[in-house]
Amino acid sequence: MAITNIILAIAVIAIGVAVGFILSSLQTASAQNLTSTENSKITSLGGPFFIEKGRIIGQRVLSVGPQPQIEFTVVANATINGNISATNTGTTVSTLQDNGVFRSTGQGFIMTKDGEVATYTSQVVGTVTEDGGVKSLGTNIWSTTSTGKLAFLNDMVNIFNLQADSYGNFSAMGWEWK
Fold this sequence. Notes:
Blueprint: H1 2-43, E1 50-63, E2 69-80, E3 84-96, E4 101-112, E5 117-128, E6 134-143, E7 157-164, E8 169-176
Antiparallel strand pairs: 1-2, 1-8, 2-3, 3-4, 4-5, 5-6, 6-7, 7-8
């Protein structure tokens, strides 16, 4: 009988510990969900206003030391606000850091089919993927004298993400930073 009571006591303790663990886990998950929900409201940028697909059309090594530095020129077909077609032409200079991260500065311009132009400068940070591609995040600061459909870009700051494959094909999406 004493052994049965000990086993029963151990079972009750085990159930209590398990219930406590489950409640603690639920509280932690609820707190994480609340934090995640609050953060998503703070950082929500809506849908992208800028979507493009393109490729690297030129590259050259600018320096090998103290850290490798490479210049890339790109061209892409872009869609702005879902209905404005444009061509993006840009050049970026990337410096590879010792930790495998690269930092880039760039500049370029977009031109619509009817000749409107907007220019940008960019700052980028990214990494080379295991398959030789690239994942990066960056910012653009826009400028234009356009009074037409690109006028909204003047003095705009946007953030973007870009992914490229090992062949130099890339896609990017940009969101206005408000």
